[in-house]
Amino acid sequence: MIRAMRIDLHSHSSVSDGTEPPAAVVDRAVAAGLDVLALTDHDTVAGIAEAAARLPSGFTLVPGVELSCAHQGSTVHLLGYLFDPQHPELTAELRRIRDDRVVRARAMVDRLRAEGLPVTWERVRAIAGDVEGRDVVGRPHIARAIVEVGGAEDVPDAFDRWIGADKPAHVARYALDPVRAVRLVREAGGVCVLAHPARSEGGGTTAVPDELVERMAEAGLGGIEADHPSHDDAERAHWRRRAEELGLVVTGSSDDHGELTGHRLGCSTTDPDAYAALVAPATGAAPHVG
Description:
InterPro entries: PHP_dom (IPR004013), PHP_domain (IPR052018), Pol/His_phosphatase_N (IPR003141), Pol/histidinol_Pase-like (IPR016195). This protein is an alpha/beta fold. It has helices at about 20-30, 50-55, 90-115, 120-130, 140-150, 155-165, 180-185, 210-220, 235-245, 270-280, and strands at about 5-10, 35-40, 60-70, 75-80, 190-195, 225, 250, 290. It is globular, with a radius of gyration of 18 Å.
């Protein structure tokens, strides 16, 4: 019997808020029995070259990114794949988002200290690491620093107590309008998938509004990540129905962050036919094949 191709289209490395370098993520993907992996670090493609250099024969790496977007005060995440990484407008927006992450993170550390938590910027940067090309500091790095000083039991608790939306140390940041983000990725020759639509960043449960998803579809959205580890069966069924109604591909992904998420590469996967349909319109870049 021929084994079905196993495809995971959402993962993170230490170039953003994962815990392992891109090469190690590829190694784990191979060990997990995957055939195709998309590396989708937050607002950066800095880890793609290292990951591509690690590929064993026959393994496919899909270059990607997880774009930070916002709609009416709520976080929306967009997965972009196979776009031109040199596209001027998209590159400028990614740089603006990354730069604002640093400003925001410093402000959050200041607020934590004002609340009596001895979190330092130096420690947050040390947790984030000093990987060549690193330019993204995320809230998970701050959350881990909070846990270290005893301010929370674990990373989700740190979000719930301190740095989630409307919490004492939360600071808003620059993010793209989701519809504009879809258009930018499409203009750069890429394809897009709405990430984990039943939850917001940090573990919240605010679903992306149907009206917004419809406008994103009109702008060129290619798929919806219905099969995500944070979605229950009812949520998966709902977003599968919405994808079918809008003529979009359904994807499944692990959204693996290494140790932070329990090394779960391959826990949810994308059907090979759905993958083929999703990437067919891409013209900005090609997958890397070992």
